[in-house]
Predict the structure.
Amino acid sequence: MNLTLTNTGSYPRIGDVPELQILRQTLARFDRQEATEADIRRAEDEMVRRAIAEQIEAGLDLVTDGQIRWYDPISHIAGKLRGTKINGLLRYFDTNFYFRQPVLVDRLIRECPILVEEYRYACSVSSRPVKPVLTGPYTLAVFSLVEWKEYRDLERRVEDYAMALAEEVADLAAAGADLIQVDEPAIVLEDAVFDLFAAGIRALAQVKGAARLALYISFGDVSPIYERLQELPVDVLGLDFTYSPQLVDRIAVEGSVKALGLGLIDGRNTKLESEAEVATALERLLPAIRSDVAYLNPSTGLEFLPRDRAFRKLQHLVRIGLRFKQ
């Protein structure tokens, strides 16, 4: 089996040294009308380049753009669709981060690609393959406020977000993305509706073409829905093991017909995991995965960590993962 070492999505946008604070400084200058939108784009480009360089330096096989241009996981996509406006801040799961909540004021329409140019730029500055990441339709629908009466029904919101994101997935595949990651953390919420979530994923899977689709779920225990997740038309299931301590035992017994993204490294905790414990988990999990590939990655994006700690987490992941690479 090929064990691919990868990031889950985000990477810290700032660091301690001045050259790692250029985006924050440019945004502050923009607020004072001392910088232009073009200045912001240049600062974002530079920080994307640095985020990718650090992932490669850590030893990853597959990198992301660090979602450097994202203000948060929700508004970066929802806010670019026609039919939305952006409201106040809301806490993002049990983190200390907040997202700008979209308000649906009219029918959702994708007027142009959202992530394609970001993906192309990331590829242009990376010597390793790049994985585009987008937030899924169910999560966007759940975290949207509704003013347009036709969207009072969650099913309708999921359908229209899925329609817009399906166009994005098709365009990313056409742009050359081999693996496209869809994050759907809202499915772990207590009142989640699995059938609506699954319908959104199926809509994306129908248009992925030759690309492979990876479904990643963080911030909760997926054990109650693990069997149903296996039935979804995705190529990779990314699971957060930090919330599901019994999941290693279950997968070791039941196996997985799909490639798995193994979130065994806690992306929200600065403490480095026991190398022996992670290795033991891998020794049990890898033989149970009935696929020729598996992924070792942090449990979540790394934006919750200081930059130096995020880098050390990736180095730790690589150090453990290399023991299992063929």
